[in-house]
Amino acid sequence: MVTFSIGRRAAAAWLSVLALAGVVCGCAATPPAHVTVRPAAVSAGTGCPPDVTGGTAAASTARTTVLWPALGRAGVPWRSVSRGWILADLARSAAASGPGTLFLVSPGGQRYRLGPAPASAFLEDWSGDGTHALFLRQSLKSTRTPVIVLDLQTGQASSFTVYSTPYNVTASFSRPAGTAILVLAGTTGGGYLPLQRFSLTGARELCYPFPQAGIGDVNYQENANGTAIVVSTLDGMEVMSSAGQPLRALATQYAPGTCQMLNWWNNDSVLAYCSGQLLAFPLSGGPPERLTTGDFLGAWHLPSGTYAEAGACGSTWLERLNPDGTATTLTVPGALGGGRVQPLGAYGDQLPLQVAGGCNRDPYSFIEWYNPATGVARPVLGGPAGGGYVADAILFQAS
Known about the structure:
Layout: H1 8-21, H2 50-53, E1 61-65, H3 70-74, E2 86-91, E3 101-105, E4 111-116, E5 122-126, E6 132-136, E7 144-151, E8 156-163, E9 169-173, E10 180-185, E11 196-199, E12 204-207, E13 219-222, E14 229-233, E15 236-240, E16 246-250, E17 259-266, E18 269-274, E19 277-282, E20 289-293, E21 296-302, E22 305-312, E23 315-321, E24 327-329, E25 340-343, E26 351-356, E27 365-371, E28 376-381, E29 389-395
Antiparallel strand pairs: 1-8, 2-3, 2-29, 3-4, 5-6, 6-7, 7-8, 9-10, 10-11, 11-12, 13-14, 14-15, 15-16, 17-18, 18-19, 19-20, 21-22, 22-23, 23-24, 25-26, 26-27, 27-28
């Protein structure tokens, strides 16, 4: 089976939701093995003790310079880079070895070639000021994961390492500007360490009280203005301030382990999949808004309606959610059956989509802008738009 990268944060959420819903390749649902031991919470603001984090508060750092062509970087209209732009890592093919090439793509489809991406690393996030990209270099043979911060304007990269079990760490820039990095790392026992915040140079600044060590499948997301962080735990979803102050619990009316956080519905509500339902939970703790039932991996609202990514048997597709609670499957140009159609977010009346092969022997991956109201799609990078295979892509300020 051909495997592909969809961005480390998106991949973690995607795979965990598919496992929960029983829609991975093979269509067999397997209940996750959760760890139910809940040790005492680590207080916020104190920093994680070495026996919990696998090291001291100081992280080793290194700085390198990537050889980027000055001409490509100089041609980027940096002051115009804002909402609607896409940052993508483009490889020559799905099987190509070596580093890919980073591109910026404007809402109008203009492509700007920046330079090589860090080798053997996955594009995780894009800072809110548009100037830095975040990468993770994960290995099955190491419990230390390099976190790489790349300056998109200069090509200079710095890195530090964090403790984690292999291939079980996610990271993101803090909101709104990207002045720090949030890291969620797994443990050898199948749980997770407390969420941590690092400076851009690797100094640990804060250990959050959620999730607690030993908890099973979890995820986190910070809202766009940086006022709240939501962490999904075995017992539901916990809301805390960016400073780590616990605020309230969400989804308490559902059985433990039955809710999976997906994406932001708006700045004050988070979308989650709970017991076969797609729900938007207000951060205030009020009752959730029920969108529909079924196996969905995310939803986005446009002027023309609400659209969701549905999944089954290793493939995903786009559906329009109807007012009566039903859904209509959309035919997206360029997407083939058994592949994947993944929205990167929403912008205006369009959805930027990463269209890729799924469990097949003919892998492809490209980005296109899709207007679901008209059915028109416009490829902008990879495949039909200049060739190549899009390994990872991020819409600016998609959260």
